[in-house]
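Narrative summary of target 7.
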Amino acid sequence: MSKILKALEGKRCTLSVISKGPVDCEVINVDDEWMEVKQFLKKDQSKTMIIRIEKINDVAINISSTVN
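Modeled conformation, tokenized:
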């Protein structure tokens, strides 16, 4: 498992996912093949998604979510 991806747990980021586009989310859990995220939708709505790591092109970490 990638230590870099594992370090994203609890952080808000934007994932670029193949066949889906950008996903604004909080990373919940990461293992060898999957990433569980809470996707933020409009008007205080969210949904949980399970994404294959191989489907992720890149990750943009939202700076405001990393400042304590």
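The two ends are 26 Å apart (CA to CA).
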